[in-house]
Fold these 4 entries.
Entry 1:
Amino acid sequence: MFESLNLNITWFVLIVGLFAMYAIMDGFDLGTGILYLLDRNEEDRRIMLKAIGPVWDGNEVWLLTAGGALFAAFPKVYATVFSGFYTAFMMLLLALIFRAVSIEFRNKQPMLWWRRIWDIGFGGGSLLAVFLFGVAFGNMARGIPLDAQYEFAGTFFGLLNPFSLLTGLLAVVLSVMHGSIFLLKKTEDLLQKKAYKWFHQSFFTLVGVLAVVLVLTFLMLPHMVINAEKTPLTVIILFAALLLLVGTIKTVHLFKYRRALVFSGLMIACLIGFYASGLFPNLVLSNPAQAYSLTIYNAASSAKTLSIMLTIALIGLPLVGIYTGFVYWVFRGKVKLDSTGY
């Protein structure tokens, strides 16, 4: 059915797209969770929770979909990454679980101490999750030590290198900016004014951090430079990301918050696409022994498996998209507090 397609490249693009969708969709509610720590006003916190309440769990479906697709299409990558990053992934899993439990448990009791415990769980879980995602992203871009059996040959603390810590910070700032735009769109009055201030603080911080990360990328990651020289696509994607960054602040100043949220999301996708195109055809770059890298060819499932999975994906992904769009349409508009809810 898909004889004319290069299934390995198709699945590479599809998986990058799925992870980008997760970063976009869950990025704003994780960012809202981080901003939640900055606002101790009870009414504001309830509004924030109510703003993400109908959508946060649906947003995480994209992470499950991306993980499942990675397992099916490139099982060696799944095995290597999940075993090598085991400690970090367990921390990430606990952060996401505690965050989810906090959202649901916070309003079960009226006591202030009860709510404060779950407030810390929600905000802290959001912050830790975003930071760990950023650290993992930095290590994938930089490369990790693999042996001849394609197994992780490093240590947990080796993953906490300066570049990955900086990309962890970048992920936090980017998520905060994305979340502040979402709050601009969904809130009114005093909280919206706070979101406007948070947006500008995070935007200019993002510009500085992103500039440092990009400079270090071209100085420290030679494969990114090589791919940029071989194909203009890498440079085009980066240029698009920078244009979208400028478009984000311009649309916020024009009070077009929905468009600003779209621009911010597309910028996140372009940044992920930039690093993915710089890694191509590698999925897990072995550093320093690049001969042990996992590529879209030596880590892939059989052609038949890729073909069958692509058929399933072409049926299932539109359904997920329709469901997601329906939920956002039903819960469109500004958030209003009432006696029920968070």
Entry 2:
Amino acid sequence: MRDVRRQLETQVLKAARTFPAIVLTGPRRAGKTWLLRHLFPRAGYFLLEDPDIVARLRADPHGFLDSVKPPAILDEVQHVPEILAYIRARIDQRPRRVGQWFLTGSQESPLMQGVTESMAGRAAVLQLLPMSVRETPKVSLLRGGYPEAVARPASARLWLASYLQTYLERDVRAVTAVKDLATFRRFLALLATRHGQVLNKTSLAAPVGVSVPTIAQWLSVLETTAQILIVPPFYENLGKRLIKSPKIYIADSGLACHLLGIETAADLAKSPFAGALFEGFVAAEIVKAQVNSGRRRELYYFRDEQGLEVDFVLPGRRSTIRLIECKMTRTPTPAMAVSMLRLAESIKRTRGRETSIEMVLLHEASRAAIRTSALVPGVRALFWRDFLDELP
């Protein structure tokens, strides 16, 4: 997808004018290497998965770095995290030289620990997620946003299967000691069936036959490698008994469909998971928009013990709150907005009537769709692509 402009480019270029180093993290195959080599074509490139380069670096780190003439891209730096201390020393010698070191890493947890200890104040840390709908309309619920799957949709199924295998064999074992990969595969398949549900570690542990602490460790691996999306609950003193566990989604909808055995649009249309997949797709697109614009992630859901539930709560500027319902339908109706209206009333009673609340019902496209906004004051019904275009 060389013709696609990644939205994070603006943030990367801005950081390169301000910081000596940039650390670009994100899931494997999201396009980190391509982005840096595209933006900085004159920078030297070194892949730290190459055994010869790794051996040279570990045997003589100063000698290796002396042979590197910045600016330089050091790809997959998590394989040799000790290099960060040596780069820090070189930055400190010439702290005013910006845009010199570009580091990538597929696994965030070990890499971030090294950055925190070695590069604090010297590096801008950015995250590149798979491609978004705003970057190319070829991104879809069925195929997801990984560049290879988007570029070659006919072979997306094979690519996703290969990606899953590579992720299991390389990334998972690099982060934690998963001894039984077959059990971990069963866990991933089970997790896909819980897509969009409130996280319950006990209910995941029993069918797989492992302990709850093991499930917690595996979920941590998936989160730190950006394979799952955790959406925390929106909590305010609304006079209600609220659900306080997060909701969980497979981060890429194409990978989620693959794990669920959904291969075609017809499979998706009749799948009992279609609504949850649509909901997770919207959540991922919102997070991508936030990350790509350099803002922190802020996405919540609401559910209380009496059954009141709203898919997403999105804080906005100047104390604005946006309530979002996702319905995989081409015929939105006023009844679909009831939960948002009830929650909005509760929030206004707590915060005050001057609180600004926007309510949006997202749905599939239809030429003859009835707009809920014409029937329910304060609620807009939007084709989901139109909503994504509105995001900052």
Entry 3:
Amino acid sequence: MMTPKAIRGWSFVHKWSSLACTAFLLMLCLTGMPLIFHHEIEHALEEGEWAPANPGGPLLDLDQVLAHALAHRPGEVPVFMSFDEDRPVVNVTTAPTAGSAEGLMHFASFDRTSGDLVPAHEGGVMEFLLQLHTDMFLGLPGMLFLGAMGLLFAVAVVSGVVLYAPFMRKLGFGTLRLAQSRRVKWLDWHNLLGIVTVAWALVVGLTGVVNTLATPIVGLWRADLVRELSAERDGGGPVAGGSVHGAVELARRQVPGNWVQFVAFPGTGYSTDRHFAVFLQGDTPVTKHLITPALVDAATGRFDGIRPMPWYAKALSLSQPLHFGDYGGLPLKVLWALLNGATIVVLGSGLYLWLRRPLAATRARAPGPQAGAAVAARAEGA
């Protein structure tokens, strides 16, 4: 049994960690709700906007698509090639040289059934919500700030769980005192939903923290990859030519059960001067988020091995879909949405309970606004 001093200490931690992050957590939950269904929403919004020139017809090979792309950007060289998952579209990035800065690169999409340009995707409400949810339009500082809020959220959840038992010892689990005052009723709903969603809240909160570190994690992986690949550069400048289609097909044969996410051409920061780096992803709901670079010699067409993702990049890749419930199709997304809605209620009710706390209890205790929280305040007869 915890001592009164320990309870006061945990209450202090819970109250202030909750109050510091509640407003931002509410924003993240509200923007996160439509993002859970972003694939379904984007598919619905895109219906009728674009269709391939020859639906169901034969596909151009990747060398033919590349020829169309270079014809649109004479004098430039290919840097990257990527692929849409649900439509026959190839995206080609070109630049004046293979080592050009990102600001000099040009991105265009091509219909693989005809080689025609595909209209550029207009930024819509989903992109606005994603940016707000990811970094509040502040870039890396915004991401790191939201990561700090996620850590406070985790502290609030854990401290709430610690406080739950001593504060609820006089009530049965799930008790709803509906005949009591409005504040007591909200307190009981806050307690019940908070403790029921605690595991989900921790998972989503901590994966969110990992996601806010995406930029430094990807930067570290890129630096490690470049350092490893630099030993294999021949110093003679990027190899021109070579069949990107042949490289992709060879990589897929050598690493079966994978799909191609994108290709880095020779001389870029993700390949050597003489290799196509073909980045493969798995074909299951879990492995599709794990990327394996395979190297194919552009001059000889020889397969030169793979470079597995390091553990920290795997952690990032696996946390992103888990954060949005993107592993189990629509049923899991519906469950995620229901739990997200419950968390919104917990956050809102916790804030209400703190604002409407009894004057006599203000100095001693104040139920905080998150899961399992101070969830209980003895003042209500708990």
Entry 4:
Amino acid sequence: MKNTDIALSTAEILLPKQGLSLEKWAVVACDQFTAEPSYWAEAEMTAKGVPSALWITLPEIYLNERSARVPGIHASMREYLGSALAAEVPEGFVLVERGTSAGLRQGLLACVDLEKYDFSKGSESLIRATEGTVPERVPPRAEIRSEAPLECPHVMMLIDDPECSVIEPALSDPGRLLYDFDLMLGGGHIRGWALEDGRARRVFDAVARLAERAGGLLFAVGDGNHSLAAAKQCWASLRETLSSAELESHPARWALVELVNLHCPALVFEPIHRALFNADPEAVLAEWRASGAFRDGGEDVRIAFGDRVLGFSCDGHPIRPLQDFLDGFLKRRPEAEIDYIHGDESLLSLACRENTVGFMPRAFDKAELFPYIRKYGVLPRKTFSMGHARDKRYYLEARRIVS
């Protein structure tokens, strides 16, 4: 079942065959724990010698090894299609309930139409990015997907559904249980059910009603922006080789994602801080005040250096003028460097270092997200994080993307 008007489709969902360990199969999104090699070493020990999504994905910590790892990833995909994976949902959605540090988060595994997705600046497509796409982060993912026979997604796609009309009603009649287990390395508990036939049709009807009041923006990428951009890039190249009939039916036109309601209480937006290194704090502060974008006093942005923390206010959310200031400062002061930091304690610890300045913007209110994107377009890179690292989506379900 598919409806291109709302960019939504069911899919044949593949899962590990009975007898295989789901705990060893499912692994956290590739862009987590990039500075913690011990985490990935433990994951490799956990999955050693058995089929695992770890062997068909590329953790970003190993990006510099991708020329050696990518052929093995493709080989494992082909092997798993013939041995480890089975079509547990011949045609449908998967309703997901995930235990996280913030509570139970519900989601809906579905396919979205890449023809209706545009991550370029100023996009008015039905599916849009929430943050600016960093061009150099797309090719490594595209390199994997371009030769891949299947996809195993970590993309979380947001819907703005304050009436809880799409995902939540399915919980009262979830259908056939597919899995129920603890995720590896403290990832919490996860359960999933197959939504097929009438249950799937009810989802289509609910999304169609949501689209009528969506103001042209139905789906916004929450996590996995660069992975979805890579899928779009691969599809744009492939579509040039296809006939009109193949354009309509080719599986690579669609991308498997987890839809999550922006209004789910367990979906938490956390700010991502900035740290400037090799920068004299007094010079930074002088240029900051001279920019005229911020006023002394307030909590929109806190600036930390040494043992001092200063508060500033601005009109609207501070993230765009903050990033504009930092980008300009880095151009004027090429000796300075920037990093993006999660958590107040980590940022304040760094700010105690000599010639280091920390910037702590206030959290981005979830209710601001869709109106902001409609009005201004994508947010600056690294605006928010959806929960802690272990709360991110785990690679679990898979889908064929070759015809």
